[in-house]
Amino acid sequence: MNTILEWLAVGVIGAAVGAVELISRYKDEPDNALNSWPAVYYLLINALASVGALGLIRVFKWDFGVTDPAAAGWTQVIVAGFGAMAILRASVFTVKVGAESVPIGPSRFLEALLIAVDQGVDRKRAQGRSAVVSKVMKDISFDKAYMALPTYCLALMQNLPQAEQEQFARKINLIRGADMSPQIKSLLLGLALMNVVGEGVLKASVEHLGGDLKPDPAPPRPETQ
């Protein structure tokens, strides 16, 4: 029974390590990062890699200096579960293609799979994100929002790294200086904020700031005699 649990545990650990990596790539909506077939394949490969690593460890009888059989078994599970990703990221050798060095090995396969996951998740989210940002940023004045809205959203986030905030500020400056209509700039502002703080924070912030982000009402027309 313990042996079955060990094999199941190492697979779960491997899948969990892969899930954490995917979630870290989509911090605004982490649940969507796992809800696609490429992501499922990625988790499965991580789980199988951990199971394979445990098999090799036991074939070569590596006990890592642990004498107690039960403790040695779980030590092997932990090493295999967390160490399989290092194996997948390894490069057997590097080939020079022009001026670029191309790694050859499991890392190349893992990189291609991550690209497929990114594309699958992006395609799935794009339509929904477009609808959300169009609704949230409707009738929002870019000139009023480009300072107030990001400042408020970022103030709500307690653990946002400084480097990420600075990168976001550069992106907003580019949007501000672009030759686009104010409406498109507002949509791009909303998308940029959604990438950083998530859909829920953006919606709540726009709702709380309310009329402060709306365009000024048009002046009344003079009465004609």
Describe the SSE topology:
Elements: H1 2-25, H2 30-33, H3 37-59, H4 69-88, E1 93-97, E2 100-104, H5 106-136, H6 142-156, H7 162-177, H8 182-197, H9 199-209
Antiparallel strand pairs: 1-2
Helix pairs in contact: 1-3, 1-4, 3-4, 3-5, 5-8, 5-9, 6-8, 6-9, 7-8, 8-9
How would you characterize the overall build of this protein?
Helix content is 71%, strand content 4%. The protein is mainly alpha-helical and 225 residues long. The protein folds into two domains: 112 residues, no CATH class; 77 residues, no CATH class. It is elongated. About 3% of the residues have low confidence.
Quick structural summary:
By secondary structure, this protein is mainly alpha-helical.
The end-to-end span amounts to 95 Å
The total beta strand count reads 2
Biggest sheet, spatial arrangement of strands: 1-2
Q: Can you tell me the overall shape?
A: elongated
SSE ordering: HHHHEEHHHHH
Main sheet properties: 2 strands, antiparallel
Poorly predicted sequence stretches spanning 5 or more consecutive residues: 91-97
The proportion of residues forming helix, as a percent range, comes to: over 70%
Q: How big is the Rg? A: 25 Å
Mean pLDDT score, rounded? 81
Count of all domains = 2
Features:
single chain; 225 residues; mainly alpha; two-stranded antiparallel sheet; elongated
